[in-house]
Amino acid sequence: PNNLQAGGCRFGNDSETSVLNAHCQAHEVSNLYITDGSFMPTGGSVTYTWTIYANSFRVADFIKKHLK
């Protein structure tokens, strides 16, 4: 659908071409994690709600592991 917005905070290894690292952590702000549809390059052609859920759990597990 054309109303699926994504890609505002793409992730990657290079802070010059991406906003987030592979763990959806902001390159510029170490304690900021973004787990909505922004990390995805595009919205795609189908609803990506479950992808966002799965990624949010993945990032939460990463944060939990690093807070111990």
Relevant terms:
single chain; 68 residues; mainly alpha; 1 helix; 0% strand; flat
Helical amount: 25-40%
What fraction of the residues are assigned to beta strands by DSSP? under 5%
Query: Which sequence of SSEs, written as H and E, runs from N to C?
Result: H
What would you call the structural class?
A: mainly alpha
Query: Which value, in Å, is the CA radius of gyration?
Result: 12 Å
Shape: flat
Calculate the terminal CA-CA distance, rounded to whole Å.
Answer: 41 Å
Q: How many H/I helical runs?
A: 1
Q: What's the structural domain tally?
A: 1
Compute the average pLDDT: 88
Largest sheet: none
User: Which residue ranges are poorly predicted, with pLDDT under 50 across at least 5 consecutive positions?
Assistant: none
Number of strands: 0
**Oligomer, anyone?**
single chain
What does this structure look like?
This protein has 68 residues and is mainly alpha-helical. The protein has one domain. It contains 1 helix and no strands. The longest helix has 19 residues. It is flat, with a radius of gyration of 12 Å.
Q: What is the secondary structure topology, with strand pairs?
A:
Layout: H1 49-67
Short summary:
This protein is mostly helical.
